[in-house]
Amino acid sequence: MIGCSKDASGPINGNVSRKVESQSVIYETDNNGLLLKTEISTSALEPNKELIVKATIENISDKTLHYNGRCGNPIGISVFSSTEYLHLWSGEDIDIVCNDIYDPDDIVSLEPNEILSKEATYHPNIRIDQRNIIEAPEGDYNVIFSFMTEEKIQLDATYPIKVKNTDFPLLPLEEAISIAKKDPRVMKWMETIDQQYVRGKPILSEGNWHIPFKSQKSQYDRIIIAIDYQTGEVQDVNEV
Fold first, then answer.
1. pTM of the full predicted structure?
2. Which residues of 145-159 are buried (b: 16+ CB within 10 A; e: fewer)?
3. 3-state helix, strand, coil in the chain (%, to 5)
4. 3-state secondary structure of 192
5. 3-class DSSP state for residue 46?
6. Alpha helices, H only, the chain
């Protein structure tokens, strides 16, 4: 470590943050006997560069804790945009799906002072339709960490990074939302519920931005608009 200054941006949830080497950042946080230490290779990810994330979980209590090892190392790491609702691509061609079946034989002990480690690499790209890799939208993202023990001790933390200088080739989400709101069918629906609505989580798939709006009057009243993510044309409007 060649630096110990407080990072001005800081983690959203973390106790210690400092810079390491030239660009990388390390921070740590703890909860009820668990200590998370992370190192993030950069806080500004650009094309043709990688984001390398290292994380360790240490049992700093005097008790043996336990975790479910059915799906391997249970330290969760992801990089997510809370505005575009997109995850950065980790370089894996196929997502490995682990069946979530509880089996007592999968429970593993984490002894006092024992450490679990995990490393992941991300790129300034996203994967759409489960096959196509494109450049991610510029903007603010969060590196998200999670860990849960069988004793229901949960440790969550996030650290903010930026994706810069990318060329997102599809219709930006904000433009898709604007197009959806101007559709006559959507405008009529919004008038029916007296403009009392909230926007749900958009999904980018099957050639479209799928944009949901939910009524604040009834949880069962919503509308979903499919906007072609290349042409910006409204493909479908469904009231649910």
1. 0.85
2. bebebeeebebebbb
3. 10, 45, 45
4. helix
5. coil
6. 173-182, 184-192
| Burial (CB count within 10 angstroms: exposed 0-12, middle 13-18, buried 19+), residue 177 | middle
* pLDDT over 80 (residue 197): yes
Q: What are the pLDDT digits (tens) for 158-183?
A: 999 999 999 999 999 999 999 999 99
- DSSP secondary structure of 71-137: TS---EEEEEETTTTEEPP-S-SSPPP------GGGEEEE-TT-EEEEEEEE-SEEEETTTEEEEPP
Provide the 3-class DSSP secondary structure of residue 193. Answer: coil
Q: Which residues of 68-99 are buried (b: 16+ CB within 10 A; e: fewer)?
A: bebeebbbebbbebeebebbbbbeeeeeeeee
User: Which secondary structure element, helix H or strand E, spans residue 44, and what is its range?
Assistant: strand 44-45
Exposure string of 125-144, with b = 16+ CB inside 10 Å and e = fewer, is bbbbeeeeebbbbbeebbbb
pLDDT for 189 equals 97
Judged by DSSP in three states, 1 sits in coil
User: Rounded distance, CA 83 to CA 173, Å?
Assistant: 9
Q: How confident is the model at residue 216 (pLDDT cuts 50, 70, 90)?
A: very high
